[in-house]
Amino acid sequence: MIRLYVPFDLTAGAPVSLDLDQTRYLVSVMRRGVGDEVALFNGRDGEWRARIAVVAKRAVQLILEDRLKAQDAGPDLDLIVALVKRTRLETIIEKAAELGARRVRPVATARTNAETARTARLRAIAVEAAEQTGRLDVPQIDEPARLDALLRNWQDGRRLLFCDEGGDAAPVLQALAGQAPGPWAILIGPEGGFSPDERARLRALDYAVPASLGPRILRADTAAISAMTLWQAVLGDSRA
Fold it and tell me: Could you read off the pLDDT of 30-58 as tens digits, one per residue?
């Protein structure tokens, strides 16, 4: 069944009108028509079965029938990633959604090779990935911020897996062993790595857990995928 994210409240019997892009996708690309079923979710009310009631040129209207899945909160995991080139950042957003990150926070560091991000485009990628992967919410995509500003306003109680390319950190599985699964964040640096000052500051944080992703130098997108996968295996919802 096709899954679509909508911002509206979902209750039995309620009508839902799709936007123009979703209408074109459903009718022109997927060739769905009146009477066909579609699954809808909004990140709050679970996943619902809806049936197409009206097909118009610029809008499809559906009627909500019954709830297929109750809302399920995934692990409280933020991915903090240094701004990288557009295509790699888009890959990171897509994979973060697939791997269960609750929020992605792009940051500017001393060695980032980009200063801005097309946040609307990244949010659209996150929505599409959530629709395809079966999750019941869409990860929040923050506007880019400076790393130092983010650290100054750090949330109490959230641990930080600092992916440290310096070479003397413990392997990530060893670093995570025995850690509690509460709120976490993963920090991935830029292609040029963290500056010495940034690395020293991160190492001094009492909530940071430095870890190595192995003996090879990884690109930012590979590092993000590897770190999220390993964290999920040890502390997230991949343990089951």
Answer: 999 999 999 999 999 999 999 999 998 88
CA-to-CA separations, 204 to 97, 143, 168, in angstroms, rounded: 30, 26, 15
Rounded to whole angstroms, the Cα distance separating 175 from 75 reads 19
pTM value?
0.93
Question: How far is it, in rounded angstroms, from Cα 230 to Cα 95?
Answer: 14
Contact indicator for 190, 84 with CB cutoff of 8 Å: yes
Spatial CB neighbours of 11, under 8 Å, sequence gap ≥ 6:
45, 64
The pLDDT value recorded for residue 219 is 93
Q: Give 181-222 pLDDT, tens digit per residue.
A: 889 999 999 988 999 999 999 999 999 999 999 988 899 999
Cβ 207 vs Cβ 184: under 8 Å: no
Q: Which domains does the chain have, with CATH numbers?
A: 3-69 (2.40.240.20), 77-235 (3.40.1280.10)
CA distance 203 to 186: 14
